[in-house]
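Deviation from plan, reported transparently: LLP complex.
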Amino acid sequence: MSAFDPAVFSRNSRFEVDHLKIASVSASALVADFGSPLFVVDEEDFRSRASHWKSALEEAFGESAGTVYYAAKSFISKEVARWVDQVGIGLDVCTGGELAVAEAIGFPAGRVELHGNNKSEDEIRIAISYGVHTIVIDSFFEIERVARIASELGVVQRVYIRVTPGVEAHTHEFISTAHEDVKFGFSLASGAAWDAISAIRAENSLRLMGLHSHIGSQIFESEGFAAAAAKLITLLARFKDTYGHELSELDLGGGYGIAYLPGEETLDPSRILNELADIVKRECASAQISVPIISIEPGRAIVGPTTTTLYTVGTTKDVELDGGLSRRYIAVDGGMSDNIRPALYGAEYIAIVANRLPLGPNRNSRVVGKHCESGDIIIREIELSADIQPGDILAVPATGAYGYSMASNYNHVPRPAVVAVNQGNARVIVRRESISDLLALEN
Ligand code: LLP
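Because the crystal trials were delayed, the predicted structure below was used instead.
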């Protein structure tokens, strides 16, 4: 398990003779120059994945292709927002903070979509003033709030309704979002979604353009997306029957799965979107409505595989287990503050030695962080070389999504830097936080 597997590392990663290189920059040089722990983003890989989702949507849906909105929550920074803009896709933001990143680089407002189940009045006002293309309405309270603020600003705001179609996505409960018992959106089954349609239509400052659903994350099968699409299409058909014209847009959200471990797959955009297009076209034909403009919101599938975290080993210790077994604890200089996913979702990762060729044999190992908590585990169980020593660099791939973006300052640990690498060059896109940054917050 501790060998380099190109399928889980970013596209321009190689293990050359005795060390890892990402976009032709060695892991050791990265740590020497920028410190550790370090998030390393393969810029070309990010751009090409983003472009691939765009072209795959266009090919699958033809003239019904809408916008690929990159889900900023997976990881956003000003530089990443520039890449997203340059690739020509849109940005899904779900807080004022994410919107501020877009504004800071002048991201075209016409390609921004605002989400959030509890948007503040300030967030709504700023978003409408900025001119965001679409606001996805999540509750009855929000209908009144968005309508009132749009009206004060003299704007007719395009909106979608977030529908919870009652689909059980096969993923972790905390990242499954479209079953009935969740905080998000308007339930289809209870009639709330239908009531929201009429409530929005009664507001002169809102223009209802379509429906949205996001069923969850790290999904591999098209069934969940298909079931959600079919239910939303039924609602679109009911709209047409009732109001005599069509709602012309449908946003199917994100959630496309990626490989974290050897042997897992990263969903191919063309394959999944072609499958979805077939289903959407078929359901629309049977419901006798036109195929709506289809948008999607992939986050993880664009940024997840592009990024590798580099850690430096600080200590190791061996523990005897029952039955004559043993485990080696390998402690690195980060942990649950830069990757909460194992603790929160039981997410699994691999690690390799990045600064040299490890010399076996392997040992049953556990990679842990530096936090004061036994659950501060990055990899619960992995075979790693017995010769790992303090000072070695471990590389953990596929940490681009929900790694930095969910990072914390637990134990007053400053957040790592994020470095972009491209064709032999490395540059900081988010500088390392310092203890002074943290103390500056305090009186
Ligand atoms: N659209 C909406 C409305 C969402 O809520 C999300 C994710 C996405 C798009 C993007 O989903 P993606 O393509 O990245 O799966 N922290 C969790 C994931 C939470 C996702 C929340 N919403 C994790 O680390 O797995």
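The pocket of LLP is lined by residues 71, 73-74, 92, 115, 175, 177, 214, 217-218, 253-256, 297-301, 341, 345, 401-402, 406 (CB under 6 Å). We consider this an acceptable substitute for the interim report.
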